[in-house]
Amino acid sequence: LALWGSNVVLSGSELQLYNIAKPENPTLVSSSEPPSAIKSLVGAGSFVLCLAKEDLSLRKMDKLGTVLATTKLNANQICFDKSKQVCYAIKSGDKSTRVQKIKVYPDSMEKDVAFDVPGVFNHCQAANGQLVLTGLMDLAYLTSDEGASTMTVKSTRHFDNFALRDVAITDDAILVTAI
Prior knowledge:
The chain has strands at 2-4, 7-11, 15-19, 27-32, 40-44, 47-51, 55-60, 63-72, 77-81, 86-92, 96-104, 109-118, 123-127, 130-134, 138-143, 152-158, 164-169, 174-178. By secondary structure, the chain is mostly beta strands. The model has no long low-confidence stretch (mean pLDDT 93).
């Protein structure tokens, strides 16, 4: 799901752009069938980042069929930090998770530094220079020092007997849902 203004992009077998100016009556504006299945989708302002099996593509929200940029990438999940114009792609391993930082521009993307975070994480959320990674029962909170290219783990938390589901970040809080 990617949201910008009154536009929403959904990903299934195809990318679908809806106008939800009237939420009681959403209107399908356009659709596009990507060349391969989309594993993860995130909004980046008026753009959409689509993670497929072997690459990350940048598309304009109102022209879903047109790929503006592509970069080879092996990841499981992506998130976007609007304030920094950076996409984070994560790939979990046996004991650590690889985080790939990607700078996003209106017509291109540039891979930046990649770094490992101890722990197995499968979801990410980013905002205002902060990155939160969640796994089945674990959470890691990362930030970067001014001018630093990599991020450091500032805090971790293990939740016994809770399976973490969704996470959201605000300026002064992290909201996590669990079952």
